[in-house]
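Kindly draft a sequence, keeping tokens residue-aligned:
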Amino acid sequence: MGTNNLSTHRRGVILRGICGGAALKDKSPQISEDNTVITCAGKLNVWDICCISSDAEAFGLKVQCGYDGQTIITFT
């Protein structure tokens, strides 16, 4: 599927679901206006990244994680 086949609204629904999951609990996740990036406080551990990646991949999205004072999760 990929982000080119998903509307901004549908990506937003998926990202809101990911934000509500256990991996981002208590990390104050914020979704970008174009529904392609989640930023959150703190660093993610390997299990958090695995959970987020598997949820995203179920909808055809790939995940790239980075850290620059806050966690940056980009969905493509």
The chain has a mean pLDDT of 92. The beta strands are 30-31, 37-40, 63-67, 71-75.
